[in-house]
Amino acid sequence: MSENTYSSYLHLDTLLSAQDCATDADSELLFLTIHQAKELWFKLMIHELEGARRALYAGDELRAYKILSRVHQIQLVQIRTWDVLSTLSPTEFQVFRESVGRDGASGFQSIQNREIEFLLGEKRRIRSFDTGESVRQVDVIAMHKDPVVQERLTRRCAEPSIYDATLNLLAQRFPDAGIEPRPAQGRDYTDSMADDPRVFAVWKRIYDDQDAHMSLFQLGERLIDLEDAFRRWRFRHLTTVARVIGRSTGTGGSAGLRYLQQTAIEGMEDFLYPELWQVRNAIFEGQ
Question: Which of 76, 106, 186, 212 would suit a FRET pair with 21, their CA atoms being 20 to 30 Å apart?
Answer without folding.
Answer: 76
